[in-house]
Amino acid sequence: MNKKIVSLILMFICTLALVACSTGTTNVSEGKSPKQMVEESFAKWYGLKSYDMDMIMNMKFSVEDEVLDMSMIGKGVIFQNPMKMKMVMETTIPGMGQKMTIEQYAEQNEQKMAIYQNIENNWQKITFDDPAMMETMYMDPKDNLKLFMDHLISAEIIGEEKIDGKDALKIKLVASGDIFDQIFQESAGDMLGLGNGLISADVFSQIGDMVYTIWVDKNTLDTLKCQMDLSENMRNLGKALAEEPNMPAEVKDIFANAEIFMEYTILNPNNAQDFTIPEEAINAPEMELPAS
């Protein structure tokens, strides 16, 4: 299996993952529409200085003649404004039954964002310094919230559950696929080949609507858990890429049969423990992106 392709896939997932407290007993959700509750919940989430995450990521890609099926569980530490992130995930190597730990860090400032990755004691990093991407990544949280709400098609309460002992409303959200078009073109277009003619600008408009499930605390409107199934979106992207004459064959295949499911639980709002990025990560060799 081409380890470089696998590493690039994991870096892509980390990037996608980037692309995300209060107390009381009064039921503040009463009298509010699902859309209003979601908007307030996201506003509180985006306003956090830090939080921890428990994560589940199920991913399947076709790589050359093999199917790369990776089910990951892990934990993350997120600091916002500026962003600093740590993720430690465990997965089983496909076809081998061996456990593997993947360690990732990300850090940004006004000039660049760096992602560091450690697989089997092999550190690599990738640095993004595209001005348009950094402008989007440094968007004010209120603007991030506006971007999502402007593309929201529907919000529907589909149930109630207990999350970590808290009464939660389960809300299904559908956002217009235009949000992918805007996010990818503004923040990741050059990395994915938009700026150098590798792919055409209308590819991202074919990804389709995004379905997003959020569990909101009934008493505080805190975001407790989120879930995304991007499988259909990635398959749509694969179909669109298949029409691009300049795309390498392996990239078409990777996305054509992709399955991506993510679930993350928000913990310790504004109380995450700070961390230091290891020197081995900072001094790691730069990973090369696929040539156009």
UniProtKB/TrEMBL annotation:
<dbReference type="InterPro" id="IPR046720">
    <property type="entry name" value="DUF6612"/>
</dbReference>
<feature type="signal peptide">
    <location>
        <begin position="1"/>
        <end position="19"/>
    </location>
</feature>
<protein>
    <submittedName>
        <fullName>Prokaryotic membrane lipoprotein lipid attachment site profile</fullName>
    </submittedName>
</protein>
<dbReference type="Pfam" id="PF20316">
    <property type="entry name" value="DUF6612"/>
</dbReference>
<keyword id="KW-0449">Lipoprotein</keyword>
<keyword id="KW-0732">Signal</keyword>
<dbReference type="InterPro" id="IPR029046">
    <property type="entry name" value="LolA/LolB/LppX"/>
</dbReference>
